[in-house]
Amino acid sequence: MSSERQDTIRKLLTALEDHHPGEMRHAERVAVVAVATANELGLDDSTLERVHSSSMLHDVGKLSLNADLLQSTGLLTREDREQLETHVDAIQFLNIDHAWMEGVPRIIRSHHERWDGTGYPNQLKGEDIPIEARLIAVAEVYDTLAYGAIWKEPIGEDAAAAEIEKGSGTWFDPSIVEAFQRVRHLIQPVNV
């Protein structure tokens, strides 16, 4: 990984961490799980690098949101939910013009799409969702369930993995869920 890419990712994650504490550790854990799963699928090195960069930056669009909204622990209004969902689009406004960013905004924009087409923002379905985004989806939900978030109590690794399994074929690509289940016991938690 180039130092330019590392520096850019670190600067953006530092800003995000200042805006919404906990996001840097979340991004690092999501990247570890997504890359390990991608590797298990036998994806090539350039795809693994895109998975890593996209995973690290998947929530950087939250910089565009009000910190109070991100810190909310109660039920969100429909308007709050709609505003929160805009975080997937904000990366395109950061104007990061580096060759390694090619494809990254589309991947980030798609990481809340669901295998069955019920996700957002475009209701993409199945293989219309970039594989990198499908990997991030599994890794992000696993991380949030296993280790918690400001709005979600952790349920632990085994219970989180069981929930991922339940979502296979609806929320998640079944082949990615299978690969994730094969490698999850090999992954050492990062910054828990």
Structure, described:
The chain is mainly α and 192 residues long. It has a single domain, classed as Hypothetical protein af1432 (Orthogonal Bundle). The protein has nine helices and no strands. It has helices spanning 3-19, 23-40, 45-57, 67-70, 78-85, 104-109, 131-147, 157-166, 174-183. The two termini are 24 Å apart. The relative contact order is 0.16. The mean pLDDT is 92.
Blueprint (SSEs and pairs):
Blueprint: H1 3-19, H2 23-40, H3 45-57, H4 67-70, H5 78-85, H6 104-109, H7 131-147, H8 157-166, H9 174-183
Helix pairs in contact: 2-3, 2-7, 2-9, 3-7, 7-8
Reading off the top of the CATH hierarchy, the class is best stated as Mainly Alpha
Order of helices and strands: HHHHHHHHH
- Count of extended strands: 0
Low-confidence stretches: none
- How widely separated are the two ends? 24 Å
Report strand %: under 5%
For the record, what is the CATH homologous superfamily label?
Answer: Hypothetical protein af1432
Report the sheet with the most strands, covering strand number, pairing sense and barrel closure: none
Overall body shape: globular
Average pLDDT level: 92
The CATH topology: Hypothetical protein af1432
